[in-house]
């Protein structure tokens, strides 16, 4: 069955000092467009994320939101340079002695001096961190894909029902088509008889006129092509491949055929069926825009 282009998925994983979460959401798009929003320090992962999505999806605008939170084991540490602090303290004592002033050690002043306190950033193992990211991303992709498949199944069933309804109307048009010529012949014969009165009709000219009308108004080829497009559409909907573009093309072709049928048929009943078919084709066209 075909997949929808709309979906949402979320995945989380914890490891290597990080709690990582991925959120995926998508809307319709003619091609595959991927927008990744990830903390700036980890931009090097963006291409890998894109590759995973490109391997799994063909169309749609997919937004990726990545959130990375440091766990306790990744907390930054503060290092105290005791020797430097003692050196600052001794220097201040010597200065106070030289100035003949009292001096009392102030710990808060000492730690404000340069390099007494240093924040230690823990090293990041990017290879290990990517494995945590990949685990979270895989979970998000699974849920995302499942939702797209579920939506696609619903769309497929709706489209198949609409194609069946179109086929029923097309069958009615096909059954009615031969009678259009017969009705035309009867109407033409009645009009000519009314005009000519007792004068005998020229059977050859009448037959030629009817034959010309039948040839000009024949919709046999259009019906055959339309039926072929219906069969191809059903086959596409039941395949496992992305079919959105193919179905969009087939709907355009079916619209072209039904417009030709409507212009050539010159019959009230067929005209009514043509309107119904065009109405259903418009609904099919709208639904097809949602398929991958």
TrEMBL record:
Its cofactor is a divalent metal cation. InterPro entries: YicC-like_C, YicC-like_N, YicC/YloC-like. Keywords: Endonuclease, Hydrolase, Nuclease. This is TIGR00255 family protein. It comes from Desulfosporosinus hippei DSM 8344. The lineage of its organism: Bacteria, Bacillati, Bacillota, Clostridia, Eubacteriales. It holds the Pfam family YicC-like_N. Residues 3-156 form the Endoribonuclease YicC-like N-terminal domain. Belongs to the YicC/YloC family. GO terms for molecular function: hydrolase activity; RNA endonuclease activity.
